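User: structure tokens for Poly-beta-1,6 N-acetyl-D-glucosamine export porin PgaA, please.
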Amino acid sequence: MRLSFRDLLLLSCTLACPASAGTPEQLAADGDWAALLGVYLATLEKNPQDAKARLGAWRAAMRLGLFEQAAGLEAGIDAREQAALEGDRIALNIRYGRIDARTLTGPERYHRLDSALSSSAALAAAFQSGRQPDAEERRRLIDRISALAARNRPADAVALYEALLAVDVEVPAWALSDVAGAYLSLRQPRQAEVLYRRVLVATPDDFDANLGLFYALVESEQLALAQAHIDRFAASLPVRRHLDGQPNGERWSAEVASDQARLYADRIAEAQRRIEQRLAVTPFNSEARSAEASLHLARGWPRQGEADLRRALGSDPRNPGLHADRAEVLLSLQDWDQARAELVRARSLDAENPRVRQADRTFDLHDRRELYVDAGYGVGQNSNPYGSSDWVVDAWLYSSPLAERWRAFIHNYSASADFNGAWTNWVRTGVGAEWRSGNWRVTGETNGGGAEKVGVLGTLRWQPDDYWKLYASAESLTNNIPLQAVRAGVTASRISAGVDWQAHESRKLALVASSADFSDGNLRQNVMATWFERWLSTPRWNFETTLGADTSRNSLGYAAPYFNPPEDRSQWFTAAVENLAWRDYDYSFRQRLALTVGNYWQSGFGNGDTEAIEYHHRWELGRAMSLRYGIGRSLRPYDGEREARNFATLTLLWRF
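Assistant: Done. Predicted tokens:
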């Protein structure tokens, strides 16, 4: 509702400080617009025809943001001043709009920003069509950059900035910070870094620019520089605010970012120590809680991470980013209904929030079809149980989710080996369905091929918490059979069961047992145990080891027409080093070199050494595709004779 002159007079008298005495000129020079408005309105109360007082009241009301009330004064001013004050009105609307965008939810959060952008839309269109702007228009265009960035329109903000640069319009530091953030949103961190550094030359203590530079360095993979920068900036901030002595929230935020710098650099144990110490001091701080969730997810504990996010939402229930993060974690936990509900909630709060958009992409990938291919090729000696050459292709094609919990799939397994110039083939094609919900995953398949009978396969997996995983399978006609047996017309059924205990991302113990019942009467029983440990983790390098042992027994022994020792056992130790050669957001390239040494004992033939070397490449080709391939050479004894085998492998995952 528009205020009357008397209401404006009362408002100005309320806002003005009693001590603000002086002439109108002095009050204007001091920027005391409330007191000045009161002076001019008091004059107009006595003499409504005073043109000077009316003009002065209009200017003061505009400076105070009382735009609708100022319009009622109908002051006669020139077009230039009218344009300048209209620009002030738009700028103030943008300032309030940025606050709304951070504090409100739903469509209303962008009402002021959209209004401000509408006010300068025609000017922007004319400028980008070639019109040269005057000084006031340049100011409005720069203000528009800020509004576009706050409205989550980074591409438009960058386009306008680059258009201004092209006509030599200087963009001030405060707007450069918004442009840098827009470049960062567009995944151009190097450009963002340049602009943030320019801002910090002008205003070294700018909190947002310092934090922005940190994230620009992180996202351009300059992790050591990022950590050094945020550590230095956090240490430079006072522990307490100067005015009231209260704890300095900016320092706290910078220190939490410093904790997370360790996570980004894969220094997870160090990050855990820091975050736990911080939570011990302020257990209910939302930023520290969010960092704790990131830590637990990095450690491979999604259930704990989801609980952290749930607690954070208890204190900040209208945060769209937290809802989006929780939706993604619930998706990984196979809590489909709750995951969808959280995403809907995040969208209702702010569908254009970057984290909500990220969650949208994650759900889009989940809803696609999936192709998984695991292939291998080997070359050895004629006496090798694998043959002189062999290959295998194991491929699954999954449908999109059906009724959330189901996926149908087609499975093809093809294997072939050359034994003394004669090829033996084993090809099975199956169809099946997979059911996934919560802690459970169950699959069933029926398959057939060649002259063999129809087979059925079932698997079961149960993961009750972040540490334990139990699994089992049963096959009436298994693919896990030597092709020497297939050549002799022998098939087998097989059952297996296993348990994994994963302490965190760097330590895992596994135990698996299996039993295969061959059609020639042979019963093969096998037990294998492994211990995986990652000893070194840095932004570029990982070093890890696997210690393993297995043993098997075969009831038919050497009477079988395939490699079938009555008893054998092996122990091995693998050391692997992995290098992240290159990464750009969802795209990366890694190299891995693994060396294995061990010992193999076979009943009737004694002990022999085993060695292997493998070299792999792994490509992440966006979030929808990954490709891994490698070559290797192994040496091990069979029936007392040491034999070599060269091999190559390929694994593909494609969501489409």
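User: Anything notable?

Assistant: The longest strand covers residues 567-584.
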